[in-house]
Design a protein that fits this description.
Blueprint lengths: L1 E4 L2 E4 L10 H5 L2 E9 L2 E3 L1 H14 L8 H14 L5 E8 L19 E8 L4 H6 L1 E7 L14 H12 L4 E6 L2 E5 L3 E6 L2 E4 L10 H13 L3 E2 L5 H5 L3 E6 L3 E8 L2 E2 L7 H14 L1
Parallel strand pairs: 7-8, 7-14, 11-12
Antiparallel strand pairs: 1-2, 1-6, 3-4, 3-5, 5-6, 8-9, 10-11, 10-13, 13-14, 14-15
Helix pairs in contact: 6-8
The structure holds N-(5'-phosphopyridoxyl)-D-alanine (PDD).
The site of N-(5'-phosphopyridoxyl)-D-alanine has 15 residues, from helix 6 and strand 13.
Length: about 280
């Protein structure tokens, strides 16, 4: 497998990560995940824009332009002959020694960039069947809009959900649903779609942008406003969204069926729209 390591394309096993890389020591870095369908990226501009925004929010000076980054990622999927799959890319603030919380001088310490690509076909069967979820308190920080590589809060929540026998964690702050551990969260009540507004409490999902467009085209009303755990439990449909799972029905929450307990008609419409967009 070929990967990107800084400005080079190298063999996966040639990459050497320094033990004093700030990503390794402080989780001082940002990442993104973008998907390719049939050899072509889907919504690459939106993912790259979010990556650049995250760099700006964290004062991380990127060593490339948006165009250069897009070119490198495109070369990566070509070289690895990725037809349909995921590309993970991240940058850390670089290797700084001795360990010191203060940001190092970017004139002296260069960031470390890596990217890899994996073949991952669409899981249509799972998207039809849906997944189960467990309600978990959102104990993460207050910069959830930054796609930080520091995901301890997210993975702790996912682990709790798994211990409860569920596939995904639906997070809430004081009873208000924010998002899931690795996806945005949606519910449908009386024909209207609800999802948390963007801001510092959720990641502004690229898939969310696509689904909002889909709903508008289909004439389905959407309210980007907070809903409670109670409202979610009484919803007609629930689903989560991300680059890797598209629009995924959530058919059961804490052991109770959501609506009919099967994939609902509104998420089905959004899935159809998504499929048309990517194919
Ligand atoms: N996760 N919220 C969180 C916390 C996420 O980690 C993700 C994506 C999303 C959805 O964002 P998007 O639609 O842009 O993929 C929302 C990626 C896929 C991951 O960490 O693997």
């Amino acid at each position: 497998m070929k990967v990107i390591w800084n400005d080079k394309i190298v063999d996966r096993n040639e990459v050497k990560i320094d033990m004093e890389d700030r990503g390794y020591q402080f989780a001082d870095g940002i990442y993104d995940v973008v998907r390719a369908y049939n050899g072509k990226f889907f919504t690459l501009d939106e993912h790259v824009d979010r990556f650049f925004r995250g760099a700006c929010q964290t004062d991380l000076e990127l060593p490339f332009s948006k165009e250069e980054l897009k070119e490198r990622l495109t070369t990566l999927i070509k070289i690895n002959q990725i037809d349909t799959g995921n590309v993970y890319f991240q940058i850390t603030r670089g290797i700084a020694s001795p360990r010191n919380h203060t940001y190092p001088d970017p004139e002296v310490v260069a960031p470390v960039f890596t990217a890899s690509a994996t073949v991952v076909p669409r899981d249509q069967e799972k998207m039809n069947r849906g997944i189960t979820a467990s309600i978990i308190p959102d104990t993460r920080w207050l910069h959830c809009d930054i796609k930080s590589i520091s995901l301890l809060g997210n993975i702790m929540a996912k682990h709790e959900a798994h211990k409860n026998g569920a596939d995904e964690a639906v997070l809430h702050r004081d009873g208000a649903v924010t998002e899931c551990s690795s996806s945005n969260m949606w519910m449908v009540k009386d024909g209207t779609i609800y999802t948390h507004p963007d801001g510092n409490l959720i990641l502004p999902g690229v898939t969310k942008i696509v689904l909002l467009r889909a709903a508008e085209k289909a004439g389905i009303p959407v309210k980007e406003e907070t809903f409670t755990v109670e409202q979610l439990k009484n919803a007609d449909e629930a689903f989560s969204s991300s680059t890797t799972i598209e629009a995924m029905p959530i058919i059961e929450i804490d052991g109770c069926p959501v609506g009919s307990g099967k994939k609902g008609p509104i998420v089905e419409k959004l899935q159809q729209y998504y499929l048309n967009e990517v194919e």
